[in-house]
Write a structure and sequence with these properties.
The chain is mainly α. The protein is built from 17 helices and 3 strands. The chain folds into 2 domains: about 110 residues, no CATH class; about 240 residues, no CATH class. The termini are far apart.
Length: about 350
Amino acid sequence: MLKKKKTIIALSLIPQFLLIKLLANYPEFVEQYYSNGLYPIISKILRFTLGWLPFSFGDLVYTFAGIYIIRWFYKNRKRLRKDTKHWLIDIFAAVAIIYGAFHLFWGLNYHRLPLHKSLNLERDYTTEQLVNTTKALIEKSNNLHAELSINDTIKVDIPFSKSEIFKMTHSGYDNLMDRFPHFKYHPVSLKKSLYSYPLTYMGFSGYLNPLTNEAQVDGLIPTFKYTTTSAHEIAHQLGYAAENEANFIGFMATTSNDNIYFKYTGYTFALRFCLNEIYRRDEALYENIIETVNTGILKNYKEVRDFWEAHENPVEPFFKIFYGNFLKANKQSKGMQSYNYVVALVVNYYENTL
């Protein structure tokens, strides 16, 4: 009887896969009934249940799951050679459960309407529009830098602990609610990852646990990056799965925060992406524009760059290839480059607000 149940669960992977493929063709349906219907209820229940814990429950789940898998393979090592059919059923049954839970608890958000449609923003932009937006971001970033530093050559140090940043991040979302009610964020479930060391060497700043809806931030990254990374992971919690969209919402949340340090990190965050895009399009133009950026801002960028370079290792590219392929499988055709497509949202947002 148990084997029959396992077989049914394992075979359920096929209709589950076909259902997800079908729903991917109906983003309006997913947007209305899942992303703005069922998902917010699931998300709030999980955050109410686990958000109060001072540690990541999801990371513990990963730990015990890893131990269980290793133990299972060890205990079944003889059976793996003699009874291939039944152990394959066990594995596919487990995969079917995880696959279903992933999409039910969060993953269907990959198939919702693109953010530029729900915010009525254009997708495309010209180099002229990019340059105009970049100049506006430079002016804003330079002005904020001047308020926070004694001269334009000194980098800004964020005077808050990482725990304090967690407590302050949600206020930016509160300030966005008048214009974007779907950005309402309560209760809070934002934590340092228990796996900050391996996460750093994998090359990632944070992640959302899709099964527990806890947002984790790498506890080792420079404090300068903590505000935008925290806001980015909250955007994932709110159901915005695409990396460029989470970057854009993180930018809006940090620049809408009442605290000037959050505003500074938010504007310089968007500026870095725009500068990178100008460099990709026209190196000579980039060299001219970069001269207008305060040296202190460039030192903040260098601080982050030095951190990641200090933790480069031969394994990191393989993790990024794996995650890049995961993103491609979930409607982000550019893989890891999807993070950089925030520029289109920023430029068109500025076109509508400047």
